[in-house]
Design a protein that fits this description.
two-stranded antiparallel ribbon, Wax synthase domain-containing protein, 2 strands, transmembrane helix, 287 residues, 2% strand, mainly alpha, transmembrane, globular, membrane
Length: 287
């Protein structure tokens, strides 16, 4: 928390130049680390106590967070990496809404309903928790505005991302990466078949006894083309991953600031550690 205290908070209403953007990103990373480490610590302590007392088994405590390597899409960030505390309760509410509104299950609209419900509920609970310490620091209307600007844009962006990925897979990727069937047809044409289906002349090689043997051009083309196809597929996959990481990073740098600012406005950086002995150890002061 000392790093947060010493950071310079960008002034409200000021245009974001490069220095301001760097400060915002710095504070957002610190906030993410504080939340991540705090939640993991609480979860691990509870798991250790539960397993140590024989009240539960280790498999009852799966990791709270997923792998950071999956964070190349917003859907993965919220569905695989981030904790799922609110997921199951919100699914019950969203399923009820889908049945009541007669939304087709597994459709794009149903997917958006699940997303919107989860983030609205999450928005509500964050406002409720921060609102308990905000009086005197941040008006309730400002708190609601800050939290809503972060949480309520997430389902919109995630749904838009899903649509873009579907369009890419349907219209762009086939042009960049021909299917195996298309490649086989191309190789079939190159290996000596004319448009009429008649075999064209194929170079031949001779055995030691003088008999002619057709050259295995088809097999060689198949092998080389499959290797090229796999290499192209790996290149496209890596390029999409890199673009995805950049997209997610830029998205949270821009949209995460209202969320972080709400906590800074309620003086989160001044909150002390719960135990004075730990605070003394961290600050170098005697308790």
């Amino acid at each position: 928390m000392l790093a947060v205290q010493r950071a310079v908070v960008p002034a409200a209403g000021r245009a974001w130049d490069a220095l301001t953007l760097a400060r915002v990103a710095y504070l957002e990373v610190l906030m993410a680390l504080v939340v991540y480490c705090g939640m993991v610590m609480q979860f691990d302590v509870a798991a250790a106590v539960g397993v140590g007392l024989g009240l539960s088994e280790p498999e009852d405590w799966p990791p709270l967070f997923g792998s950071l390597a999956d964070c190349y899409t917003l859907a993965n960030v919220w569905g695989r990496f981030w904790h799922q505390y609110i997921r199951q309760p919100s699914l019950g509410v969203s399923q009820y809404l889908i049945r009541t509104l007669h939304v087709q299950p597994h459709s794009q609209l149903a997917y958006f309903t699940h997303l919107a419900t989860a983030f609205v509920i999450s928005d509500f609970f964050h406002v409720l928790s921060v609102g308990s310490v905000s009086p005197g620091f941040l008006p309730l209307s400002s708190l609601v505005a800050h939290m809503s600007r972060f949480f309520l844009v997430q389902p919109l962006a995630t749904a838009a991302e899903s649509i873009v990925m579907r369009l890419y897979a349907r219209h762009v990727q086939p042009q960049l990466l021909p299917s195996s069937g298309e490649q086989k047809q191309t190789l079939h044409d190159l290996s000596g078949k004319s448009d009429g289906g008649k075999a064209a002349s194929v170079p031949a090689v001779s055995k030691s006894d003088g008999s002619a043997v057709p050259k295995d051009v088809q097999g060689q083309h198949d092998t080389n083309s499959e290797r090229k196809r796999k290499a192209l597929h790996a290149l496209l996959r890596a390029s999409c991953r890199i673009f995805g990481y950049l997209w997610v990073l830029c998205w949270f740098v821009v949209t995460g600031w209202p969320f972080v600012k709400a906590y800074l406005d309620v003086r989160m950086a001044d909150w002390g550690l719960p135990y004075s002995i730990l605070e003394s150890a961290c600050t170098g002061r005697e308790s």
